[in-house]
Aspartate carbamoyltransferase (Phaeovibrio sulfidiphilus), 318 residues
Amino acid sequence: MTTPETGILPQHLLGIEGLTRDQISLFLDHAERYASFGARDAAFGRPLDGRTVINLFFENSTRTRTSFELAAKRLGADVINMEVGASSISKGETLIDTAVTLNAMHPEALVIRHADSGAVALLAQKVNCAVVNAGDGAHEHPTQALLDALTIRLRKGRLEGLTVAICGDVAHSRVARSNIHLLTTMGATVRAVGPRSLVPSGVRAMGAEIFHDMREGLRDVDIVMMLRVQTERMQGNFFPSAREYFRFFGLDREKLALARPDALIMHPGPMNRGVEIDSDVADDFERSVIRMQVEMGVAVRMAVLELLSNRTGREVVK
Ligand code: ASP
């Protein structure tokens, strides 16, 4: 498979904010080619043969790390997973020293997840390989938004003109932020739906409409994107109880009936069944594309790793 002209892309993928329609489309078009090949390695041509990709995860992750690992391996790269707990970070080395040390081993790309917003961008300034943000705090998770967009595009044939409701814990969600940037840039209408305590008014400035009544927010939408309630990022009480939350903001058949009859159900995972989503709708394979999202994750990460590799003119950091 030939690699398209990548001159319009930035050196790193730190977020969706600031990317143009053309840049987003380039990632999606290339990922779609990988998605159509399925898992048949021979068709990929191993464009990263002999290169190294390092996964540097400062925050727990199973699905995202595995997905990046599989993507890099399908491209033919060698993959190193940094066990951060066992690394020199715990011996007092600074974040920046860790990144500079890894950079000196000349990887093709560093895939970084960190609990603090902005930490990945900081590290990217200190290295000359490509850096891919695999999630930084509540800031951005760009490959998640790309895989969500690819899933929507494959099922609906377009992004432009669709209405997407992003529901639940918007305040703590990097998935929501990246999706709002991507979907508004691509011409979709985005609604942020959830309790006042979990939908910051700042999302309006990002182009989303705000709804605090889920029934209103879901009316006639094409896509219902549920978010996990991220209790690990909450200090104090943001809602009275999980039961109460489900009653007002959990997706069940009755609330789903307000969306368009062909509306798709999405969730980035991991799901809190019975809190933000009922199993009955999560497992409705006519409407729920949650498994397809996971599958598209590998295709998107292959495209991102390949397109950000082999770039000429990288500034050498001293
Ligand atoms: N897996 C996604 C993330 O890392 C969503 C979540 O954890 O709720 O942000």
Notes: Confidence is low (pLDDT under 50) at residues 312-318. Residues 135, 141, 174-175, 228, 230, 268-269 surround aspartic acid (CB under 6 Å). The longest helix spans residues 290-308.
